[in-house]
Amino acid sequence: MNTGLQGLLGTFDGSGAWYDSAGKSAAYRIRQTNTSTADGFEVAFKHDFDDGTVVDARVSMSWIAPNLFRLDVAGTPVGNGYVFGGVCHYHMKLGEKFVEVSYVPGADSVEVFGSSSTNAEGNYIAWKETLLRTAS
Fold it and tell me: What band does 2 get if pLDDT is binned at 50, 70 and 90?
């Protein structure tokens, strides 16, 4: 296992907000669990939006070289990423959409920053999340 992952592993709860290029924004609640696997690590998250929408997703990362990983969704490679100094960053292509995410760990927290080339309405979107560790 990459020792830079230590601050990212565990279960976290928190909140986030997204902002799009049309000037819209909304808040949401998050539960995220990051676990080590035999050949990498996995990120599973659930986002509960105020409008009742729920996003429940799981992505798997497999080491391809020291500090570098391949990102799989449902067993299909969709992107790549890296871990340096505890910071984890990845990018992926889902259909015509490009998504990038960064995880920056704190003592018992993780700050998440991300963006997507398009949201459901076709606008550029970015988000920030603050997650607090609830279990190791």
Answer: low
Amino acid letter, 51: D
Task: In whole angstroms, give the CA distance from residue 63 to residue 70.
Answer: 6
- CB–CB of 79/90 below 8 Å? yes
pTM over 0.85: yes
The token duo for 134 is 């609830």
Which residue in the block uniquely carries the two structure tokens 């080491």?
A: 63
Taking Cα atoms as reference points, which of 70, 12, 67, 61 lies closest to residue 36? 61
Q: Residue 41 corresponds to which amino acid?
A: F
Token duo for residue 22: 């049309």
For the segment 9-24, what is each residue's pLDDT rounded down to a tens digit?
Answer: 999 999 999 999 999 9
